[in-house]
Specification:
alpha+beta, Glutaredoxin, four-stranded mixed sheet, 54% helix, 11% strand, globular
Length: 121
Amino acid sequence: MKFKAVLVGTIAILTLSILLVSCNGNNSNNGEEGNVEALAKCLTDSGAEFYGAYWCPHCQDQKDMFGDAIEFVPYVECTVEQQACVDAGVEAFPTWKFSDGTVAMGAQSLEKLAEMSGCEY
Protein backbone atom coordinates (compact mmCIF):
# COMPACT_ATOMS: atom_id res chain seq x y z
CA MET A 1 0.00 0.00 0.00
CA LYS A 2 2.85 2.38 0.86
CA PHE A 3 4.48 1.69 -2.52
CA LYS A 4 1.26 2.63 -4.33
CA ALA A 5 1.05 5.96 -2.45
CA VAL A 6 4.68 6.76 -3.31
CA LEU A 7 4.09 5.83 -6.95
CA VAL A 8 0.98 8.04 -7.19
CA GLY A 9 2.85 10.91 -5.53
CA THR A 10 5.80 10.53 -7.90
CA ILE A 11 3.53 10.50 -10.94
CA ALA A 12 1.75 13.62 -9.68
CA ILE A 13 5.06 15.45 -9.15
CA LEU A 14 6.32 14.44 -12.61
CA THR A 15 3.06 15.56 -14.21
CA LEU A 16 3.25 18.96 -12.48
CA SER A 17 6.90 19.33 -13.48
CA ILE A 18 6.08 18.61 -17.12
CA LEU A 19 3.22 21.13 -17.03
CA LEU A 20 5.44 23.82 -15.52
CA VAL A 21 8.14 23.26 -18.13
CA SER A 22 5.53 23.34 -20.89
CA CYS A 23 4.06 26.59 -19.60
CA ASN A 24 7.48 28.21 -19.46
CA GLY A 25 8.21 27.04 -22.97
CA ASN A 26 4.98 28.64 -24.18
CA ASN A 27 5.51 31.87 -22.28
CA SER A 28 2.49 34.12 -22.43
CA ASN A 29 4.87 37.09 -22.79
CA ASN A 30 5.72 36.04 -26.34
CA GLY A 31 3.21 38.55 -27.64
CA GLU A 32 4.81 41.26 -25.51
CA GLU A 33 8.29 40.24 -26.64
CA GLY A 34 7.08 40.48 -30.22
CA ASN A 35 5.88 44.01 -29.49
CA VAL A 36 9.27 44.90 -28.01
CA GLU A 37 11.06 43.56 -31.09
CA ALA A 38 8.68 45.43 -33.38
CA LEU A 39 9.27 48.60 -31.35
CA ALA A 40 13.04 48.15 -31.55
CA LYS A 41 12.89 47.72 -35.33
CA CYS A 42 10.53 50.67 -35.69
CA LEU A 43 12.87 52.86 -33.64
CA THR A 44 15.61 52.04 -36.12
CA ASP A 45 13.35 52.69 -39.11
CA SER A 46 12.20 56.00 -37.61
CA GLY A 47 15.75 57.32 -37.29
CA ALA A 48 15.89 57.27 -33.48
CA GLU A 49 19.27 56.68 -31.86
CA PHE A 50 20.19 55.51 -28.37
CA TYR A 51 23.52 56.82 -27.04
CA GLY A 52 25.10 55.26 -24.00
CA ALA A 53 28.16 53.83 -22.30
CA TYR A 54 28.85 50.29 -21.12
CA TRP A 55 29.58 51.47 -17.57
CA CYS A 56 26.33 53.45 -17.23
CA PRO A 57 23.78 51.66 -14.98
CA HIS A 58 20.86 53.61 -16.48
CA CYS A 59 21.97 52.57 -19.97
CA GLN A 60 21.98 48.96 -18.79
CA ASP A 61 18.48 49.43 -17.37
CA GLN A 62 17.36 50.81 -20.75
CA LYS A 63 18.91 47.84 -22.58
CA ASP A 64 17.28 45.41 -20.16
CA MET A 65 13.84 46.84 -21.03
CA PHE A 66 14.36 45.55 -24.57
CA GLY A 67 15.62 42.11 -23.54
CA ASP A 68 16.84 40.13 -26.54
CA ALA A 69 15.37 42.74 -28.89
CA ILE A 70 18.20 45.11 -27.90
CA GLU A 71 20.04 43.77 -30.95
CA PHE A 72 17.54 45.69 -33.12
CA VAL A 73 17.90 48.99 -31.25
CA PRO A 74 20.02 51.70 -32.92
CA TYR A 75 22.61 51.89 -30.11
CA VAL A 76 25.77 54.02 -30.19
CA GLU A 77 28.43 53.07 -27.63
CA CYS A 78 30.00 56.42 -26.77
CA THR A 79 33.18 54.91 -25.31
CA VAL A 80 33.89 53.48 -28.76
CA GLU A 81 32.24 56.01 -31.08
CA GLN A 82 33.27 59.14 -29.17
CA GLN A 83 33.12 61.50 -32.13
CA ALA A 84 29.60 60.38 -33.07
CA CYS A 85 28.48 61.20 -29.55
CA VAL A 86 30.24 64.57 -29.58
CA ASP A 87 28.69 65.38 -32.97
CA ALA A 88 25.26 64.38 -31.63
CA GLY A 89 25.69 66.71 -28.65
CA VAL A 90 25.33 63.94 -26.09
CA GLU A 91 25.71 65.41 -22.60
CA ALA A 92 24.39 62.57 -20.42
CA PHE A 93 23.74 58.85 -20.59
CA PRO A 94 21.49 57.46 -21.80
CA THR A 95 20.39 59.92 -24.46
CA TRP A 96 17.79 59.28 -27.14
CA LYS A 97 17.70 61.43 -30.28
CA PHE A 98 14.74 61.31 -32.64
CA SER A 99 14.49 62.24 -36.30
CA ASP A 100 12.44 65.36 -35.53
CA GLY A 101 15.31 66.69 -33.39
CA THR A 102 13.71 65.79 -30.07
CA VAL A 103 16.14 64.66 -27.38
CA ALA A 104 15.31 62.64 -24.28
CA MET A 105 17.88 62.08 -21.54
CA GLY A 106 17.68 59.27 -19.05
CA ALA A 107 16.14 55.83 -19.35
CA GLN A 108 12.75 56.07 -21.05
CA SER A 109 9.83 53.68 -20.76
CA LEU A 110 9.06 51.67 -23.87
CA GLU A 111 5.70 53.44 -24.03
CA LYS A 112 7.42 56.83 -24.00
CA LEU A 113 9.88 55.76 -26.72
CA ALA A 114 6.97 54.61 -28.86
CA GLU A 115 5.19 57.92 -28.32
CA MET A 116 8.28 60.02 -29.10
CA SER A 117 9.16 58.05 -32.23
CA GLY A 118 5.66 57.56 -33.61
CA CYS A 119 6.04 53.79 -33.28
CA GLU A 120 3.41 51.42 -31.98
CA TYR A 121 3.89 49.47 -28.78
